[in-house]
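thought: fold this chain, then report.
action: predict
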Amino acid sequence: MKIPNVEKTILDNGLTIVTENIQSLRSVALGLVVGAGSGDELQGEEGLTHFIEHMAFKGTPKRSAFQIAKELDAVGGKLNAYTSKEYTVYYSVVLDRHINIASDVLTDIFLNPSLKEEDIQMEKGVILEEINMYEDAPDDLIHDLFMQTILHAHPIGKSTLGTKKSVSGFSRESFLKYRDRLYKPNNVIVSAAGDVKHLDVIKMAESVFGQFNGKKEAVKSFIPQIKSETKLQNKKTEQVHLCLGTKGVSQMEDDRYVLSILDTILGGSMSSWLFQEVREKRGLAYSIYSTAQPFRDFGVFYVYAGTEKKNVDQVIFLILEQFKKMKKEGISSEELSRAKEHLKGGLVLGLESSSARMSYIAKSEFFHKRAISVEEIFENIDKISQKDIISLAEKIFDEEYLNLVVLGDVESVQGIKV
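observation:
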């Protein structure tokens, strides 16, 4: 099922263009999505993807860092970027009449970062402090520790920020080699949404990316073998932070919709089982929630909680009890209906801006090579049954896949059994 106003073109050099014309909006969001995430880093490159994203804003042969910021500020626009495990996004949001300014600046920082050695050395200090800040935030750090534990040596399990050792070792040559390997036209999506014409974006892309050549070579991916493991990391903290989880589902599996329902009822909302049982009824945690992390080839699903040292075993027990309940009883018809409407409402409300639409069609193209309509997602959600929930719960809540990571002033925890 197609989205009516979404168009797609692939240029001769392999660059993909996707646009959604939304004439009711006055804004335009323009994004450049490159299939280069922290999961694509080789040994010794940990953190390089994120570092390269930072360096894009440090200047080009045409513009200084100040000029880059000033040009978008002068028209009330936004210019930003972010790094994920599987891709990096550079984007700008402006009024429709300023689309040419946005495209000129955005493509310049994407294609032509100066990567001056002095700027690299300066930014190293910034990123090393970012790592320090992250390590001082246990409620953030625990998520990285969990991903490293459950995915073992898989690159996606490594921190997007990298390590102090890896970041300190980067040189200009490191950046050039990485970009030469991954910043290729067949690995880039130009995405635009708002009051913008597809033909205009094609003309811009042909003009700017015409000499952008080369091809990203296919790399054989591997799926990590998830097996049960418990890890305790002692750290002097006021709270003990923990993640307890298992294998999930990938972006490519239909079960991702089933997991979204399960996630919503288990710990994805304020009315969820975990929020009610652990926080509202017993006051054992301020923050507790579940989260699904679907990647292209596999997925991870886990629960996070922060609690007092004396309550750790009880919180773990309560989480495991909810896993058991989901396997044995599933969810009620009322919970199923509520979760479906929760997901639909969240999806629609989350797509009401040009930047959200741009990001949505780009990621849909990145993972599925097509724009998946909201109506198609609704159909997939509507056909989920109570039996589907139990079936998935039985697959993922198996003792052989459960991983527990605990961070804080704690020496031991109870064993895992579900």
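thought: worth noting. Residues 185 and 212 are 6 Å apart (CA to CA).
final: tokens above.
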